[in-house]
Write a structure and sequence with these properties.
This protein is mainly β. About 0% of the residues lie in helices and about 45% in strands. The protein contains no helices and 13 strands. The radius of gyration is 23 Å and the shape is elongated.
């Protein structure tokens, strides 16, 4: 016959009374804030779909902003960010940068976490998406990037601003575009234990 042990809480030998990292109730176990997960363990995943359309200017503008509340003080965030773009014609494109702040309203003076913009030969015009020649062009873009975090606590909320700009003034650029319905920003954020 198998043995069973019935308890309400489990505390380590050197732990404090009332500070149990594992609490039991019936057939349910709850892990407390003192539980440490192994490195690489997925702690939380969020997904956001935002339908809208924006016509780009020649300055980086925060067109999309999201928040994420941390579950650990020792984790990193991994992003999969997908969007559609409509470029109105030849010799036009766009750039993308992502910034982080610890309060709402993210600006370009905050922490830059993603900037993989190739530029033209003078280094001044972004070419993340670029349409060299021909008529209007529709494309889908996906960016995968990591925000290496430090100095934050479980429960802190971080805010991310997705800044876009048009490359030049040759043609209209819309991100996401609108046709019969607005296009979308699709964002998946995964929090992973360090």
């Amino acid at each position: 016959m198998a043995s069973e042990l019935f308890v309400d809480k489990i505390t380590g030998k050197t732990g404090t009374s009332g500070g149990a990292p594992i609490t039991l109730s019936g057939d349910t176990a709850t892990l407390g804030t003192g539980v440490t997960f192994p490195a690489g363990h997925v702690l939380k995943v969020t997904h956001d779909t935002t339908q809208e359309t924006n016509t780009m200017t020649e300055s980086f503008v925060n067109y999309h902003e999201l928040s994420f509340t941390l579950t650990s003080s020792s984790s990193d965030l991994f992003f999969i960010f997908t969007y559609e773009a409509h470029t109105g014609g030849s010799n036009e494109g766009h750039g993308l940068k992502v910034y982080r702040n610890n309060s709402a309203t993210v600006t370009t003076s905050h922490t830059l976490v993603h900037n993989v913009n190739p530029t033209n030969s003078s280094g001044t015009l972004p070419m993340t998406g670029y349409h060299l020649s021909g008529s209007a062009h529709y494309s889908s873009y996906t960016h995968n990037f990591k925000d290496s975090l430090s100095g934050f606590s479980a429960g802190d909320t971080l805010y991310y601003g997705f800044f876009f700009r048009r490359r030049s003034n040759n043609n209209v650029v819309k991100i996401p575009p609108d046709e019969d319905q607005d296009g979308a920003f699709l964002t998946t954020i995964t929090e992973v234990q360090k």
